Amino acid sequence: MMTKKKGLAAIGVLIFATFPLWMKYVRPDDVRYWVDVINNVGLYAILALSLNVILGDAGMYNMGHAAFYAVGAYTGAILNTQLGVPILLALPVAGITAGIFSAIIARPVIHLRGDYLLIVTVGVGEILRIALINDVFGITGGPNGIFGIARPEFFGFKIKRPDHFFYLIWGFAALTLFLFNRLKQSRFGRALDYLREDAVAAEGSGINTDRYRLLAFLLGATWAGMTGSLFAAKMTIISPESFSFWESVVIFMIVILGGSGNMAGVILGTFIVIALPEVFRDFASARMLIFGLAMMVMMVFRTQGLLPPKPRKFNLPKLAEEGE
Amino acid sequence: MMALLDLNGVTKTFGGLTAVGDVSFTVEEGSVVGLIGPNGAGKTTVFNLITGNYVPNSGSILFEGRELSGMATNKIVSSGIARTFQTIRLFQKMSVVENVLAGCHCRMKSGIFSAMLRTPSQRREELAALELAMRELAFVGLAHQAENLAANLSYGNQRLLEIARALATGPKLIILDEPAGGMNPQETDQLVALIAKLKERGITVLLIEHDMSLVMRACEKLVVLEYGIKIAEGKPDAVKTDPRVIEAYLGTD
Lengths: 324, 253
Description:
The complex is a heterodimer of chains A (324) and B (253).
Chain A: H1 2-17, H2 19-26, H3 31-57, H4 65-83, H5 87-109, H6 114-133, E1 146-147, E2 153-154, E3 157-158, H7 162-184, H8 187-197, H9 199-204, H10 209-235, E4 237-238, H11 245-258, H12 263-279, H13 286-301, H14 316-323
Antiparallel strand pairs in A: 1-4, 2-3
Chain B: E1 5-14, E2 17-27, E3 32-36, H1 43-50, E4 58-63, E5 66-67, H2 73-78, E6 81-83, H3 96-104, H4 112-117, H5 120-140, H6 155-167, E7 173-177, H7 185-200, E8 204-208, H8 212-218, E9 221-226, E10 229-234, H9 236-240, H10 243-250
Parallel strand pairs in B: 3-8, 3-9, 6-7, 7-8
Antiparallel strand pairs in B: 1-2, 1-4, 4-5, 9-10
Helix pairs in contact in B: 3-5, 3-6, 5-6
């Protein structure tokens, strides 16, 4: 039973991993376009997974996630264009910078309850975007942004075509899923769940809730920052427009729609929010209407999202055997 | 000998209301102490002051000689005081064993990186925590419910689960806020036995309870509060006959 499920999953992963190869035959004319759509889905999936740590796991309403994404993208772009650091090497630095930025922002507002925190994070996102437009630091290129970001290289192999990026982005997404899944099954993951369910009870059980709120922000922002660098590498040009309030809303929507706290749900949500509108491009103007309506119906009839998280399973029978 | 817990002149006001006024009492190591009084006497406020949920306006709360007031709740828990809540505060949507694991948290060390790398020490720690959680569940008699959701437990069992979660923090002092609330007489009998077992384990117990039969059977010492003021303290038999206590509970003509 279990092996059958695993086998199906393996086949699914294999079909997806060879997407750029078989799509050539399905849609020979616009294969590049479709691979690029899936690459975009990949970037949003990583972003949504990183927001899921903050919003889904720790239950903190962060509607300014694009700000951390922007800090990462700009850090990567500046390191690359000004100092000539290869973008993949700049990736961890961009992540850490975004993480530090988030910690500075989050530290004083971490106590705020849901909706108040949401307003603060919206404000932070807007402040950062306007600061970037006004070229406050003199290194962000103002409204034009930064261009001429070098393509990433992987041991001498230059990543430039959409199908190359497919493997870079989805490789990173797979790594993210792998690591975050391990976190979910750990003391850290449980602490975030306790915190979300009942912060008073969590604190009363000896969990340092302030520390974990901050750590959730730090981890989510670090990951968003690294994704920002990937985005900069893919686009070779970034500008403040790419990090508007709307981006934060889209990422927030993906997590809520997909099923906050469940990574499979977040991935499903990303495909629905990012890829589905592309599929229905023929309906042009009506698609946003249909999409908005679908969201409304969801929020009335299935508030927990498409795939809500299931309770954790522990290997208790095995434990009992060992005990006896 | 120094008392395990020593409250000295503790006062807490909310606006103009003095919830707790100049309350002093001690809890000796290894004893079972009951905090009783009519509704609204400030008993739960005293608990919240001990566990750091409130900060006293004045007075000191010493645990093993260390000042507690001003300390964060989670630090107080890791220093050895665990509690249960009057209104049950379990993680309802999680399994029973997962609730107990919350208590194990403060005795564990592994962080983000060791979890991502799943180091051998992290795996050992996880397994040890799971074993400890199962032991505490067995101690309160809920091991067979381990995989059930907390929300599906009966009211009495939810109270026991809160005790198991508190025990998993490895406390020296456990404070129970109305542990028999919602329990039937058989469950209350089992609770009295459980409190005796806690004492055997060397854990000191401080409890709030309205069920007088339980208090008289389980406690060695009682502290009586009325309107935030301590009106009596002593052995259960002596307190029971104290005219001020009778007056507080039954009123006078």
